[in-house]
User: Fold these one by one.
Assistant:
Number 1:
Amino acid sequence: MSGTEQGPHLLLVEDDSELSTSLVLYLESEGYEVTLAENGTDAEEEATRLPGYDLIILDAKLPDQNGFEVLRQAREDGVRTPVLMLTGLGDHEHKMRGFQVGTDDYLTKPFETEELLARIDALLRREAQVEEEGGVFNVGGLQVDLDNEEVVRNGDPVQLTDLEYKLLAYLLRRRGRTATREQILRDVWDLPSAVETRTIDRHVNALRDVMDGNSEDEWAIQSVYGIGYKLEGADRVEETATEAV
């Protein structure tokens, strides 16, 4: 990674001060931005903070509660951030428990920093593939074709501006996850997050006008008050094999 660019923001949850110090220094030297939490209470607060982290490295054994409980609560609170769990517990039962509560990968202590970095890179690459996700989805009475950038309703084309479509595709690819205003400004409008604008709201309302629903509990694009928006209720249209002639 380039030392002049801000890399992905990682949340490291580790109570061993010697290990956490060495990991923070190592990851920062590799270009990552790292925030450290040393107990479960702080970890829960940080994990749900918005804008969210790109990845969470979570120790399974914490002084006030275990990492499994922290992760379970975070997932219940809607946190979809990829999680790499660190633990000295290497048996199958504990690994299965981690996956059951929503971890994405598992690394048993002691480990080599090179392996940790490889696991982080793999998880971030997988998450980045969301940016290029294609396919056809039904949502809010619309059928959205991400591959061909087409939107139809009842078979008829829906006319959207370029920014309206970009916003719809952005929220669709992050379906079920909150997108903050700062993230939308950065990723859709290509504006600094410090810019304040109501343009996002106007574009969301324009999309709601062509979708099903007449109130907040009916709209596919839901407001997360004071934070941003998230899209719910999207279903992927499964491709059907064409019959040979």
Number 2:
Amino acid sequence: MKITRISTQKKNTERFNIYVERDGKEEYAFAVDADILIKYNLQRDRELDDDFVKEVLTAEERQKAYRLALNHLSYRMRATSEVRKHLLEKEMPEEAVEHAINRLTEQKYLNDEQFAAAYVATKKATTPHGPGRIRRDLEALEVPKPLIEEALRQFTSDEELEKALKFLRQKQKELQRRSVRELTQKLQQTLMQRGFTKEVSAEALRIAFEEVDQDEGLDAAVYQARRYYSKYRNAEAFEREQKTKQALVRKGFPYSLAAEAIEQVKMEEDE
């Protein structure tokens, strides 16, 4: 084969179509990136053999994978596994993918250590997640465990507690409408799902409930009493009061607080 013509692609001026003469006729052979065109000195009238063409096409696949990866990285930092997955989804050959990964790693465009540190810093500043959730996310991105643990060192125990408390304080209205016993298990489970340790979750709950004073505890009981007293409005007076009181106790309110709340609701109804 001999190159008869080289033309620039209309949609991408950095790529070139190579035409060759075969059996006395000109035909399209392949397309290459500008860097490959220069590297292999592809020009008109150059003779090509099969081994040389195979080498050029291998280099072209590697270059294409590299450029796809660079474009993927241009939007934000990414873990190595994210880039590999992206290239495979673009149906790039595995050899070209690994070559691109190695090249980007050598050039420090890919660095899982830096990625993990930046990921932890961002999630710590912008999300209500604790270190456990962030660890799970990084593990899902196949970041090596030693790099994950090193990155999580920036998440101190005091910061973890403060973040858990911030989440609970956002639930202030809920804390004012339900009993401590009813909410404790639910909120502790929620905190642990968000990546906070069991110990930190328990301590945050203790502090948060201390911040809810006795008056707010009565407000929560009254709020629930109104609901149940209305629910049982068709019952006899004594039965209505007893059913309401039982419902409040089941929700975790102390008996004395339930009784006080019911008396307040009865007074409201009499007014």
